[in-house]
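Reading is simple: the token line describes the chain's fold. The lines below illustrate.

. . .
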Amino acid sequence: MLVVEDDWLLASEIVRLLESANCRVIGPAPTVALAIAHIEGGQPFDAALLDINLQGELSYEVADVLLARGVRLAFVTGYPKTVLPRRFDGIPLYEKPFEPHRVLSGLLADDAEPA
């Protein structure tokens, strides 16, 4: 699972949660450039968690690359779903603060949708 998050404390919490669920974690990537580097780096993963605002840069480019590769993803952000471009309408969005276990179970489900 690729973790794209610029808040180090939150990223660490997400990584711990994923590892406790026996997920192999790539990242965390705090910038768009590093996220893209992880994607192109060849390490396989089948899902990703993305913060929208990464040090002032939006992660939409990362989401586009992931979707083009068929990778499931969810946004974890302080922004409401209304800020997402329409092309991401079907992507789950969990607003911060969030319950990590809810995000994990949603993302690992085949039809990941927030409750």
Summary: The longest helix spans residues 8-20. The chain has a mean pLDDT of 88. Residues 1-71 form a domain with the Rossmann fold fold (CATH 3.40.50.2300). Helices lie at 8-20, 32-40, 60-68, 100-108.
